[in-house]
Amino acid sequence: MEANATSAWVPQFPPKRDALAIVVPVTVIYVAIFVTGVAGNVVTVIVIWRCRCMHTPTNYYLMSLAVSDLLLLLSGLPQEVYSIWIRYPYPFGGAFCVLRGLAAETSANASVLTITAFTVERYLAICKPFQTATRAQAPSRRHRVFKVIAGVWAAALLCAGIQAMQFGVMVTDILGRQVPLCAQVRVLLSHSFEAATLVFFAAPMTLMCVLYALIASRLHRQRKEAVGHSTPSSLRHVAAKKRVIKMLAAVVTAFFLCWAPFHAQRLVAIHAGGAVGPGLFDGLTYVSGVLHYVSATVNPILYQLMSRKFRQAGKDTLAGLLPNLAWSVRRRASRHHPHGPRCGS
């Protein structure tokens, strides 16, 4: 009996996916994130681009953030969905493996550097107003912002390149079968992932927390001064500043909540992957992956919820785009049906 059981045993390949009870809900969540994230960030870019009233330093930073979020969604999410259904073999080749890593790291780096840049810009505008350009120097302010954004993307791409070049297609043996996987295949810089967590997460978050504390203190003093010498314009000015700061603080908070699990999972995988139970590690991987992509869809929602100016600009932009779209559709239809559309009998 024992001999029969032993001879009947056949080695099994590791499962290519988890149970459908896990994979299907995660896929549905990813599809929802992709649709809402792409639509929301495209609308954000269009609104800021088309509306002259939205051409402010802060909004230029928000447009840069929307572009980085679009890059993350378009380059990462389709392959992420594929990989949760088919873990191996990796079919896309070494170049795509490197490019996908480059896009993901560039997007992540650009996002945190952009958020840090507009936090510093708000701090200077509110706490050091005499060191910033005046309204009469608006063109020079725009040029400065464009230079900062260009520097952000250059630094993000350079640092991402170091990370991405460590990846490639590794062929591993699974029960005598050669299986290609996209994985880290070389070390160009020791402790590069730990350094990335420090430089692109821990240090910027610490700086932003300090700056927002200083901004809040300054606004509190300004509000007390405005109440003491209360004029409608001074009170409105302070209230407008507070609304902007609340929205930006919400963006920073969302960034922390979405990216902290990602960096935690990465560090656990490097230093304690074997010490953590597979169930717990898989759970952390799924949660951090979902939140990683939620970070790319939450910002447009925050803008609409917290900024009346953004909501109005969005309505005005859509109101202008939809009639043009309807006119274009009617024009194409009239070419095919000169007498108008036919109705069913």
Descriptive account of the structure:
Residues 40-303 form the G-protein coupled receptors family 1 profile domain. It is found in: Cell membrane. By secondary structure, the chain is mainly α. It has one domain: Rhodopsin 7-helix transmembrane proteins (Rhopdopsin 7-helix transmembrane proteins). The protein is 76% helix and 5% strand. The chain has helices spanning 2-8, 20-50, 57-85, 93-127, 138-164, 192-228, 232-271, 278-294, 298-306, 308-336, and strands at residues 167-174, 177-184. It has a two-stranded antiparallel ribbon with strand order 1-2. A hairpin with a 2-residue loop joins strand 1 and strand 2 (177-184).
Which key phrases capture this entry?
G-protein coupled receptor; two-stranded antiparallel sheet; 345 residues; glycoprotein; GPCR_Rhodpsn_7TM; mainly alpha; single chain; Rhopdopsin 7-helix transmembrane proteins; 2 strands; disordered C terminus
> What structural class should be given to the helix and strand makeup?
mainly alpha
Number of structural units classed as domains: 1
Main sheet summary: 2 strands, antiparallel
CATH superfamily: Rhodopsin 7-helix transmembrane proteins
How far the N terminus sits from the C terminus, by CA atoms, comes to: 76 Å
- Portion of residues in beta strands equals under 5%
Order of helices and strands: HHHHHEEHHHHH
The stretches of 5 or more residues where confidence is low (pLDDT under 50) are 1-11, 336-345
Q: Tell me the CATH architecture.
A: Up-down Bundle
Pfam families: 7tm_1 (PF00001)
Protein name: Pyrokinin-1 receptor-like
Membrane topology: Multi-pass membrane protein
GO molecular function: neuromedin U receptor activity
